[in-house]
Amino acid sequence: MFIGGFQKFTMLDYPGKIAAVVFTMGCNFRCPYCHNPELVDSKLIDYENEIKENDVLKFLDSRKGDLDGICITGGEPTLQLGLKEFIKKIKKMGFSIKLDTNASHSSIVSELIEDNLVDYWAIDIKTTPEKYKIMTKKDDIIENIEKSISLITGSCSELELRTTVAPGYVNQKDFDEIINWINGIDQNIFSKLFRYSIQNFRPEKTLHNGFENVKPYEKKELEKMSKKLKKYCGNVVVLD
Ligand code: SF4
Predict the structure, then answer these.
(1) In this structure, which residue's CA is closest to atom 4 in ligand 1?
(2) I want to staple 37 with a disulfide (CB 3.0 to 4.6 A). Which of 12, 64, 132, 207 is the partner?
């Protein structure tokens, strides 16, 4: 595991749970609006100050009974070769696991589900299938994301979908397309979701410098997107 950050306490990142957050290094995407460039850009990743897996595990062991769960985020956690073993060790201590992912590695998702290692999945839905292909320059991306989502909805874990609404990547019309796409993966998907989160893009720190000058959507635009989703999903949250 390459761990670039560790937050010892949060009440915001794992719904209903007091948690700690592990930030993994590296990502196979390059979303220009990414808020964690120091975990994604190889020129910025600080391998020298990598946090040791054992230090994280030791800390968690000392917090049994105080924390309920651990969020593993990134970067893209499913790139980590030791992810499965790391989660197994944490689960053994009695903690619940929330995993944030771009869902592009369906084979890893499948392995984690097979061993029932993740309690709560948070999948980023970045944009429409067409724009995903342009954005990631990967042909098999949609197939993998759809596979990951189907695997999770067929399991007993909770699933949250979330979209960061970055101008140029998601607009009102795109939201209609996203809803159709998701419905096409599983026509009951919206009733199975724990929630759908819409979060505004934050320009203070971005992977591509030019994106720092992009103006985020106004709250009313986010509300309009949320209204579209609410026709299908009972729990939609807007995080501005
Ligand atoms: S937003 Fe997520 S998927 Fe995109 S580059 Fe950043 S860490 Fe990777």
Answers:
(1) 31
(2) 207
